[in-house]
Each structure stands twice: as C-alpha cells, then as structure tokens.
Amino acid sequence: MSNQPSKALETFDNPKPERDFTIRIDLPEFTCLCPKTGQPDFATLHIEYVPDRACVELKSLKLYVWSYRDEGAFHEAVTNRILDDLVAATKPRFMRLTARFNVRGGVYTHVVAEHRQPDWISPQPVQLP
C-alpha cells in the first residue's frame, strides 16, 4: 500500500453499469503552488460523475491529488488537467469538477470544468409531491 504521491489513478468495475447514478466526492485538502510566486494555493475539489464501466478508486485519487502539492499551476489549468486525467481513467458518462480555491489577495477563484459523452442524455429529475 503506497503512502507516496502518485499520478496513477486506479479504477474498479462499476457495480451497476446499467443504471445512471451519481457519485460525489469532496477533497478539501488540495494544494498546488502559484506559478508566479511559488506560494501554496489551497482548494476544495468537488467531483460529481455518472460512471459508465469504471469508478475511480478513492485511495489512488487521494495520492493523485497529493501529487500536485509541489507543482506550480494556474487554477484554470490544474482544474482542467485533473478533469482530463479522471476522464481518461474512468471514461464516465458525465463528470463535473469544481475547484474552489481559497482567498488570495482578496480574490476567490472557482473553476468548473465538465465532460459529457456525446450520446449520453441526462435523466430528468423526479419531482415528488
């Protein structure tokens, strides 16, 4: 069992691939470095996805997120790179990554990036009385 940062994202088979269901993951301890100043940037990552055949394994996701701790990256670039890596690993029907960066110099940054399979149609929400 690894306790070192890693860019390897592991997956496991979706236990119910015939059903659309949503997985939500919150990662409140994301850090990377500002590419201009080298100072740490802190964020909470919110992942929402509808899996197809694979789901992301959570320990590998934790180690993957940890791997950014010493990397310089603009908020927009790192959010899209993480989404791209998650999509490449899991090939979901739909995935949204929201990165909510903590304040720096009086400015909060929230970056939202999405992926959708071209033929996937979102189910209509059910409104109960």
- Gyration radius (Cα, Å) is 16 Å
Q: What is the tally of beta strands? A: 6
Give the biggest beta sheet. Answer: 4 strands, antiparallel
Low-confidence stretches: none
Q: State mean pLDDT (0 to 100 scale).
A: 95
Helix content: 10-25%
Shape: globular
- The SSE order reads EEEEHHEE
- Approximately what portion of the residues adopt beta-strand conformation? 35-45%
How far apart lie the N and C ends? 48 Å
Total helical segments = 2
Which keywords apply here?
129 residues, alpha+beta, two-stranded antiparallel sheet
Description of the molecule:
- By secondary structure, the protein is of the alpha+beta class.
- The protein contains 2 helices and 6 strands, in the order E-E-E-E-H-H-E-E.
- The strands form 2 sheets. A 4-stranded antiparallel sheet has the order 2-3-5-6, with helices on one face. Strands 1-4 form a two-stranded antiparallel ribbon.
- The longest helix is centred in the middle third of the chain and has 16 residues, at 75-90.
- The radius of gyration is 16 Å and the shape is globular.
Spell out the blueprint of helices and strands:
Blueprint lengths: L10 E3 L9 E11 L6 E11 L3 E3 L1 H9 L8 H16 L3 E11 L2 E10 L13
Antiparallel strand pairs: 1-4, 2-3, 3-5, 5-6
